[in-house]
Amino acid sequence: MRKRLMGKLLALMLALVCVLGLTGCGGGKSKAVGKYDLESMETGGMTINVQDMLDALGESGVEMSVEIVLELKDDGSFTLDMSALDESQSEEGTWEEKSGKITLTSNGESIEATLDGDTLTLEEDGEKMVFVKQ
C-alpha cells in the first residue's frame, strides 16, 4: 500500500512539474510591451536624430526640450505622449502584434510598425519614426 501511495505521489509531482514547466514557456506578455523614446525621424529623404538636433539648438543658444514617448501596454492599449516648448499632447489607442508586425490603431486610423530587438519603426507615406526601448 505504501509503495502504491508513493507511486501516485511521484506521478502527481511529475504531472505538476510538467504543468508548471509548460505554463512558464507558454504565452506571457509580448516582448513589444514597454516604453519607447523617439530617436530619429526621416522625412523628405532627410534623417533627423532628435538628440543631435537638441544639442545643435543648445549650442546656438536656443534652449529646447522635446520628449516623445510611445508606451505599448500589456492590456493592448498604447499612449503616445509628446511634449515640446511647454506644450504637450497625448494620443491613445490600441495595438496588436501579428506576423511580426505591430498595428497601432487610434481614432479609426491604423499604422503598422516593425520591431527589431529594442527598435520599433513606424513608417508611412515615405516618413519614418524610429523609437528605442527604454
UniProtKB/TrEMBL annotation:
Q: Which domain of life is it from?
A: Bacteria
Any idea what this protein is called? Copper resistance protein NlpE N-terminal domain-containing protein
InterPro entries named in the record: Cu-R_lipoprotein_NlpE
